[in-house]
Amino acid sequence: MNKILSTPRRLVLALVAAGAIGALGATGAGLVGVVHGDARAATSLFAPAAQPASPASPAAAVAAPNFADITARNGAAVVNISVVGSSRAMGDDGDEAAARQGQGQGQGQGLQGMDPNDPFFEFFRRFGVPGMPGMGQGQPQRDVPTRGEGSGFIVSSDGLILTNAHVVRGAKEVTVKLTDRREFSAKVLGADPKTDVAVLRIEAKNLPTVSLGKTADLRVGDWVLAIGSPFGFESSVTAGVVSAKGRTLPDDSFVPFLQTDVAINPGNSGGPLFNARGEVVGINSQIYSRSGGYQGVSFAIPIEVATRVQQQIVATGKVQHARLGVAVQEVNQAFADSFKLDRPEGALVSSVDKSGPAAQAGLEPGDVVRKIDGQPIVGSGDLPAFVGQALPGQKVTLEIWRNGEARTLSAVLGDASDKAAKVAKDKPDAGKGKLGLALRPLQPEEKQQIGVKDGLVVADAAGPAAEAGITQGDVLLSINGSPAGDIEAVRAAMAKAGKTVAVLIWRDGNRIFVPVRLG
Fold first, then answer.
1. Does 166 qualify as catalytic in the annotation?
2. Do the bridges between strand 279-287 and strand 211-212 make them parallel or antiparallel, or are there none, so unpaired?
């Protein structure tokens, strides 16, 4: 025995065999000390237990929540949702459940066994397989049943259920299955594609419900737990941590998503995300994936967003979102330098709808929105996320940055159903050197065609302008907020420019700012 314990590595092996390695603690620091330390460190394993670390000690361990208790309390309130639709009604819009079931459940003949991730799967699903009956013979396509599954959770004991809008999109029949194996036909009271929230109702009483929490109490790094039906495996539990808050995704949604590393897969959509106290803080909605399966990045809709949608649907059967009437883009360091901002934060206004609320409030292209109703706008997506959760007719205060100084504007928000808000895509940073543009004046018919009073057409782009993404055919509108009415105006603006300029161009019907680094 003494020979076996003569080295730290053999000591570890002996402890593993004896089942004593668990005494090393949750952090694993003790294991590293045994493997790489000296014999004295190894013998300390048999010393009396150390005193508990003080709260201020970095070594103090934080106990994980009891996931089993959370699941036992709330599992019965999480439901499985099955939908039946048709190939024409479902799947064409990217519904994950319908697409997942397309390997032989109503996506047309010839797709059985075909991988949905195959590059040709979508083509054959939409247009059929050449040579199959009905193809090229002028015969009308018939509706073929499609089936899909998702998750949801009960928020009131009389049968009110929250889930994702994409789970029930185009569904002709919706069936809710409880953990006690009872099944109910559900009615879709309403669905909101902009937030991806849907409200269902089943005819039942005295149902178990979940408790709702607050995302404001969540911190990045906090434990969270999901319950759902991934791939149809009902009542599956996965856990992880909050990776980030207030994420905006490039899908024109109005949702400041919660990002987690909880394993979410097709079928989890619509299921609840619980905090460590067993309260629902989100609805699992999307994943970032290149394979179609979970890859470590999941997104959940904050419960406050879902609750607002629920209240509107129950009260009126529809959902309203506000609209400001601007297109915005990110403020990077190059833009911050150009506009003399102390940090690269805010939403840069690239265009303003002439008939929208922003124009009436006096907002102009080149303004940087830094706060709305006192709430800081850090990323450009923060602005549409805030506006989208407001109501039409609501008055808001905008704190903006214009021409090197702060200003305050007031706006009355419009209705988003009139016209969708846009988020412009920014362009890569430019290199060093001169601007590098060959310009010509706009012809009168060109001004009328694109709807601008002044501007210069880019005849050729080289150097920093070309590296920034400016190309032949773009229309130069302004430099650092100064209109580019003629060549002399451009030269005057460049004479006052620093190392970086913000160039506003017109391209394909859109106005976008491009940062150009001059050196």
1. yes
2. parallel
pLDDT at position 454 is: 80
CA dist., res. 300 & res. 500, Å (int): 38
Q: Which of 95, 196, 367, 474 is catalytic?
A: 196
What is the 8-class DSSP label of residue 181? S
pLDDT confidence tier of residue 466, bands split at 50, 70 and 90: confident
Beta strands in 263-374 (DSSP E): 272-274, 279-287, 298-302, 322-323, 326-330, 347-352, 368-372
Residue in the block written with tokens 């996320």 = 385
* Spatial CA neighbour of 372 closest among 385, 360, 359: 385
The one-letter code for the residue type at 475 is V
Mean pLDDT of 71-88: 89
Query: Residues of the chain with pLDDT > 90: what percent?
Result: 41
Query: One of 87, 166, 350, 474 is an active-site residue; which one?
Result: 166
Neighbours of 41 (CB within 10 A): 15
Q: What pLDDT shows up at residue 434?
A: 73
Q: How far is the CA of 324 from the CAs of 256, 265, 341, 388, 422, in angstroms?
A: 17, 35, 23, 9, 10
Which of 82, 229, 269, 285 does the annotation list as catalytic? 269
| Integer-rounded Cα radius of gyration of the chain | 29
What are the C-alpha distances in Å from 56 to residues 89, 223, 367? Answer: 58, 21, 46
Give yes or no: 269 in active site.
yes
Helices 8-18, 29-36: inter-axial angle, 10-degree rounding: 140
Unique residue bearing structure tokens 């490039």? 250
Mean pLDDT of 21-40: 34
How much is the mean pLDDT over the chain?
Answer: 78
- pLDDT by residue (tens digit) across 287-298? 888 877 788 899
Least confident of 100-109, 133-142, 185-194, 318-327: 100-109
pTM, rounded to two decimals: 0.62
3-state secondary structure 363-419: CCCCCEEEEECCEECCCCCHHHHHHHHCCCCCEEEEEEEECCEEEEEEEECEECCCC
Q: What token pair was written down for 303?
A: 């419960």
| Residue 390, both tokens | 């407001």
Q: Is 208 exposed, middle or buried (0-12, 13-18, 19+ CB in 10 A)?
A: middle
Compute how many other C-beta atoms are within 10 angstroms of the C-beta atom of residue 87.
22
Cα end-to-end span (Å), the chain:
72
Beta bridge partners of 224: 240
- Answer for the pair 176, 80: CB distance below 8 angstroms, yes or no: yes
Q: Is 196 a catalytic residue?
A: yes
Distance CA 407, CA 434 (A): 32
With residues binned 3-state (H G I as helix, E B as strand, rest as coil), the percentages for the chain, rounded to 5, are 25, 30, 45
Residue 309 phi/psi, 5-degree rounding, is -65, -45
Average pLDDT over residues 226-237: 94
Distance between CA atoms of 372 and 410, rounded to whole angstroms? 10
